[in-house]
Amino acid sequence: MNTIGLVAFALVGSSKAIREEFDLFGIAIVGLAMAFAGGVTRDLFVTRVPLVLQTPTEIVLALGGVLLAIVLRIGLRSPDEHPFTLVADAIGLAAFATTGAIVATEANVSAFGIVAIATINAVGGGALADILLDRSPFILFDDFYASCAVLGGLSFLVADALGAGASTAAATCAVVTVGTRLVAVTQNWEIPTVQGLGLTER
Amino acid sequence: MNTIGLVAFALVGSSKAIREEFDLFGIAIVGLAMAFAGGVTRDLFVTRVPLVLQTPTEIVLALGGVLLAIVLRIGLRSPDEHPFTLVADAIGLAAFATTGAIVATEANVSAFGIVAIATINAVGGGALADILLDRSPFILFDDFYASCAVLGGLSFLVADALGAGASTAAATCAVVTVGTRLVAVTQNWEIPTVQGLGLTER
Amino acid sequence: MNTIGLVAFALVGSSKAIREEFDLFGIAIVGLAMAFAGGVTRDLFVTRVPLVLQTPTEIVLALGGVLLAIVLRIGLRSPDEHPFTLVADAIGLAAFATTGAIVATEANVSAFGIVAIATINAVGGGALADILLDRSPFILFDDFYASCAVLGGLSFLVADALGAGASTAAATCAVVTVGTRLVAVTQNWEIPTVQGLGLTER
């Protein structure tokens, strides 16, 4: 799953940079930033050297995603909106939320810490990519995205509290994250704004 | 004081997100980012796991600030400009600058390190909130804000060098930060630009 | 070399902030951010307290760069485009890439980790300065800039793999970085976009 996440997130980040007509170097940087930033932040929070700087496999997978974005762009107009990309992105979101929850549990943080690290691991890359592209992070106002990682993290806590083993809790987190994400995309779920709740005099 | 800081900063961050018509999830994220980012950066700089991920109280306080922002917005048009918010924000600034100075002292950094960590602890949250809202951090050009934390940090150093105890130095830092901030807001203090100094041929 | 880097980067960052008519405090912050952010990120990645917070010399050098930017602005219209600044900036880029490669080697990271830390050390400051100025980091789409640090990091790896000593590898990295950067500026080198390669139906 982590493999698919790295490839998918690099693909999505690079596709966005291609659309903005960044040069090849910029395309690679945005792709790598999207693939790695969440995991790097997770590792810094538990004070260890980022995993991506220690193993040779992660960089190869992410560069594969960058290359895939370039190849897809030659054939398609908008690879980042293709259903294939949306599904891969949802799987990536789930993979990274689950990895974050596992690493956080090992680091003995609080229940909030587990949900926070799962969410940051999942959405940190997308947020950095958007900041590099000089726009407000889409995770903040576009749709039901980071919320899926939060729900995944919470389901991990519940499964763990109910005495499920570590791998059951991880599987629950992954299923809840990818499931809510795919349903949200298909159903166009939206979270209301305060103004939208109709409670304020505008 | 730290309690007031967490609530106030979450309140101010969430109020800004409400004004930008972010959804409820985005409102919570900007509020939590404003409340926690300074302290998290401080903890990373002294290489320890962020405190907010280890204790359950900080998240409860910050979520209280988020809720307060929503409640206030229902009654008021601009809760982030209300005098109550400005005073709470000034107290938060002082509380976080003081906490930063204390943690930095314990980590054996240089005198510059103490002032830098005090300032980052105090203003890091506001800067991140503004970046998430896709605008240039207000601390850089709006008014006499981060400067108050710098003055607080410097007063901490002076008090410490004069042989005052740790708690006297902390109190000095807090009083100087909140005092200069409140005077700056009331008096509309401004720091000149290079162009404003009239020394350049424009 | 590190000395020149700190002064040059603080100078360039402050010059940009002066052009945007930031106040004196904002000018200092952007200058210090540009001088320090790369090194701080490097230190966080290898989980040690940032060097700049421990030694008193780095802050003095960076403040010198800030002051120099103000003095130059009084005499020149665009100090950040002056050849003197461009050369100093190229030397800074090389100095920081080399320092990053050395620190990364000592931290036992992978080959990718060495290139990544060298590049981040070199360009992290410029990227943060641009984010603070609320624009997309110029390193991503403007010209042949971060690529020089990547080439420097790769040449460090090659020299090291060929059995050259640590100081030869460091010298190679510095020469390659500053050399490619100066040639790129003089020759107006550009990296193509995917669209520019003419492979896509636009």
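Residues 2-187 of chain A form one domain.
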